[in-house]
Write a structure and sequence with these properties.
By secondary structure, the chain is α+β, with helices and mostly antiparallel strands. The protein is 34% helix and 21% strand. The radius of gyration is 18 Å and the shape is globular.
């Protein structure tokens, strides 16, 4: 018989570099698979990538952004093992809304499924905001997969509001050209 968890797990938030990216694959896969389950009608336009393909593409982005600077990888560790992570970077300000010239972009935030709702995501967000504020960045943006109402509620608690809706579609074959 296992003891029931009665409070949030003890975690430590650590900054890491590209050498730790491979430690995050299972967390990425969990997030990706959860998103695939709720993606809905967009999957009629384009099917979800396999988790391993998605990870390899995103891992490459993370590595490139870390190498370029102005990007951070934060890992929530429990007894030395990753149980969550946040990846964010600084990019140009929003093109539609009056933000600062540089703003943060949260590229990914994932927590082990069985540890969600224990505050680990909030600990990661606190550290993301602390670091962005320390660099003089006053706005943050992110993308949430269509249908992920739980994520939207989480980010709304952090004072965020949906700003853009991204659509995905195929080009029309034989539609001609210019």
């Amino acid at each position: 018989m296992t003891a029931e968890q009665t409070g949030p797990p003890e975690v430590e938030i650590v900054e890491a570099g590209a050498e730790r990216l491979d430690d995050l694959e299972s967390l990425w896969r969990a997030m990706h698979e959860s998103n695939a389950e709720i993606a809905g009608e967009v999957c009629e336009v384009a099917p979800f990538r396999r988790a391993e393909d998605s990870w390899q593409r995103r891992r490459g982005d993370f590595k490139r952004w870390l190498r370029a600077g102005d990007a951070w990888l934060l890992i929530a560790e429990r007894e030395g093992s990753p149980v969550g992570f946040a990846f964010f970077r600084i990019c140009d300000g929003d093109w539609s809304f009056k933000t600062t010239e540089r703003m943060g972009e949260l590229e990914a935030l994932s927590v082990e499924p069985e540890l969600r709702r224990w505050g680990i995501g909030s600990l990661l967000m606190e550290e993301v905001e602390r670091r962005l504020t320390a660099t003089g960045v006053g706005f943050i943006g992110l993308t949430v997969i269509a249908g992920n109402e739980e994520a939207l509620r989480f980010y709304k608690r952090w004072g965020m509001a949906p700003s853009h809706i991204r659509c995905l579609g195929r080009t029309l074959p034989g539609s001609g050209g210019l």
